[in-house]
Design a protein that fits this description.
single chain; alpha/beta; 2 domains; two-stranded antiparallel sheet; 14 helices; 8 strands; about 45% helix; binds thiamine diphosphate
Amino acid sequence: MPAISGDEDRAMTADRPAATIAPRKKGMGRKRIDLGELEDVQILNEHGVVDEASEPTIDGTDLFRIYRTMVLTRAVDRRMVNMQRQGEMGTFAPGEGQEATQIGQIFPVTDKDWFSPSYRSFGAQLWRGWTIEGLLLLWGGYFEGFEVPAGVNDLPFSIVVGSHILPAVGVAMGIRMRGDDAIVLTNFGDGALSQGVVSEAFNFAAVYKAPIVFVCENNGYAISTPIEHQAGTIELARRGPGFGIPSVRVDGNDVLAMIVTTRAALERARSGGGPSLIEAVTYRMSAHTTADDPKVYRSEEEVAKWRARCPIARFEKYLLNKGLLDHKTIDRIGKECEQEVRAARERFRKRAKARPREVFDFMFQKLPAELEAQKREYLARLDRKGVE
Ligand SMILES: Cc1ncc(C[n+]2csc(CCOP(=O)(O)OP(=O)(O)O)c2C)c(N)n1
């Protein structure tokens, strides 16, 4: 009987720690994205050098807005972490290092399209029209922060890993049944792929040719679990073809590669071709959440390696080379974004004078006894003098 082969990935993972999940350079020289080829796509390398044959046409105003939103995303991120440390925020899931993945995937999505975000998607949410103070309220535990802004076609996110993906497929199936022109984009982490419901979502989407784009942000870890311990193949895009979903693996720290690939997937969905899966290979530079200490499970050397692949610095070099940015403007944008975040923090503080009392509400019609007890204890703490 012939030996069953297919263990090549396992052999590779044994030799490849998370730190080396670096995109290969096969995409260089490619003129169009072939969804389904499972090759790595990179257009802008770590040194800011662009592959001109694959460079997308994006007008200067848009390039500038993309860059500014990436800078703003990082400013919001760092401020939110500081506020949590100072006791102003319940918790927060930072996304430093994932700015190109975030803004690159959302740039080609139009206002009439739908977005179903994971909890680490505040960069894309800012692009879609969520306000900074709204996001501060959300992570601060105030119910009003969870409300999707008027006119924004986004679904609310859930902390239950992978739970927002099947509803996103449902929306896409509904769009197709009604003959609407919109598409849905949803994103999630590498760990979410281990949830059974995500396989159900892929299968429904493929069978019903739902107009949906799945973006898996492979940031190397599900909290402290590295991808090698989570999956039988570290090339997660390989999962798609098994469901009949064309898939591609992209350098997620290259905003141009993200844009080009997402555009191709959106066109496919819009023209009736059905779902696509994009695996964006990136890295979470900071903690999983403010309750996590990544020093326990990854090395300084690994983080330093990825810091050198900073998606903002890379895009900055590209814009400098194109003459669309200069150092004075970089400095001005940094200060403006910082100012914007501080102003939003002031508006948040006016609203958030008292701690949120609603954190146990809205999930259950009748709270289970254990949560009821926790709620009573929490409210009693708030009511005690000096807790506010
Ligand atoms: C169903 C479920 N199981 C466990 C958790 C606890 N949890 C929160 S985030 C997380 C890791 C998710 O990792 P990944 O999907 O890679 O996304 P990332 O956080 O890296 O963006 C886990 C296990 C949860 N929220 N929901």
